[in-house]
Design brief:
The chain is about 10% helix and about 50% strand. With about 160 residues, it is mainly β.
Length: about 160
């Protein structure tokens, strides 16, 4: 849906996204399709080497959200992002010291989030959004070690701007 070059395919996209932080890159850009309460989208994120302390980190994210509350200039949503970290250095098969199956899918992660969209006017298509999320690794760690791991220490925060078409 997002990769076809024709103008007909663009009609399936409602919003462009620009996001700062939020575990899928320092800066992420993408496209989104809104349906009544549900939306689907994709983002490309990047963390520059100055911030990562090593190589540039790139991510590709499939984003889905469900809006469960709506008011005139405010709505709340929950969602699930599946993101893939590009690059061979993040493949779990490179860790030869670990037992077979110890790192099942090391470079595909799930991120559960809760967020809000803020509109300046009710009819306006553009909005700011803020979201907090926690990835699947920290949820599993908490379930395994609830006395040692505090999930609030591992919540990621992101904010962005949606431009409606």
């Amino acid at each position: 849906m997002f990769t076809t070059p024709s103008a007909w395919a663009i009609s399936y996209v409602d919003n462009a996204l620009l996001q700062f932080s939020g575990e899928i890159g320092l800066i992420s850009v993408g496209l989104e399709k809104k349906m009544s309460r549900y939306s689907l989208g994709g983002l490309y994120g990047i963390v520059p080497s100055e911030v990562s302390g090593g190589r540039v980190i790139e991510t590709v994210t499939f984003r889905q959200t469900y809006r469960f509350y709506e008011w005139s200039r405010f709505d709340a949503y929950c969602g699930l992002n599946l993101f893939h970290i590009l690059g061979l250095q993040y493949q779990s098969t490179n860790f030869r010291d670990a037992p077979q199956g110890y790192y099942p899918i090391g470079n595909v992660r799930g991120l559960f989030n809760l967020g809000t969209n803020l509109f300046f006017k009710k009819e306006e298509k553009n909005s700011f959004y803020f979201e907090a999320g926690i990835n699947d690794i920290w949820i599993v760690n908490y379930l395994s070690n609830s006395r040692e791991v505090n999930p609030r220490d591992h919540v990621s925060m992101g904010m962005g701007y949606k431009i409606g078409f």
